[in-house]
Amino acid sequence: MAKSKILSNVDLSKFGGPVFSGRSKGENLRLRLDLDNKDKTEGPIEFIIPIDTYAFNSSFFLGLFGDSVRKFKSEEAFLQKYHFKCSPTIFTEIKTHIARALRENGPLI
Fold first, then answer.
1. What is the rounded distance in angstroms from the CA atom of residue 11 to the CA atom of residue 3?
2. CB count, 10 Å around CB of 68?
3. Closest CA to 72 of 84, 61, 82, 83
């Protein structure tokens, strides 16, 4: 399958690092980036995670992307929409976080 052209890039170095943690920080960034509407747009969006990032915690990921993962209903569908430019270690963490989001019915209280 041919890759779709990236519509936009989001450089997470503009929003923190080298540790990304906290569900509320992820939720706040989700609102700032208007991901609910981006979920509905055509074409992929690339998130650039700085190479010096050493923690991309599940709490932050779930706050930022949990709703999107559940909307797309599968890892494959989510990763067709949201691409990640990051180290292999961080990408492995992201795949684990996606699996966790798919197991959750909704955000934690």
1. 20
2. 19
3. 82
pTM, 2 dp: 0.89
Q: How far is CA 88 from the centre of its chain?
A: 15
Bridge partners of 46? 9, 83
Read off the pLDDT of residues 44-86 as tens digits, 9 standing for 90 and up: 999 999 999 999 999 999 999 999 999 999 999 999 999 999 9
Residue 57 identity: N
Segments making up each domain of the chain, as ranges: 8-103
How many C-beta atoms surround the C-beta of residue 66 within 10 A? Answer: 25
CA dihedral 12, 24, 20, 31 (to 10 degrees): -10
Residues for the chain: how many in total? 109
